[in-house]
Prior knowledge:
Blueprint: H1 10-22, E1 24-25, H2 27-37, H3 43-55, E2 59-71, E3 74-84, H4 94-102
Antiparallel strand pairs: 1-3, 2-3
Helix pairs in contact: 2-3
Amino acid sequence: MKRGRPVKSVIRQNVVEILHHLGKGYVYEIAKIYNQVFPPVTQRSIYYHLRKGVSTEEFAVHKIEVEKGDFSWGSTVEKTYYHLGKGAEPKGEMRVKEFLKKR
């Protein structure tokens, strides 16, 4: 029997389902959708699973954009957009599809 944490994660699989229907997205956008469709998790958890998913090739970085604006922390924000990688196995979750269709 293997030791340590299992490689698969329910949260990461749900993020795969979101990106499958969304195409590409950044952490805040994915977290908002996740918390409206699935049991709520923190934005930090979504960020962790996206980073972990990049290492397991479930996700890939699409692009990194620097956006200017008037934010509480400064004048710029860096958005990292993710899309599905070659290791992703979407199951076609209908809840996500229906939610995004209404949105």
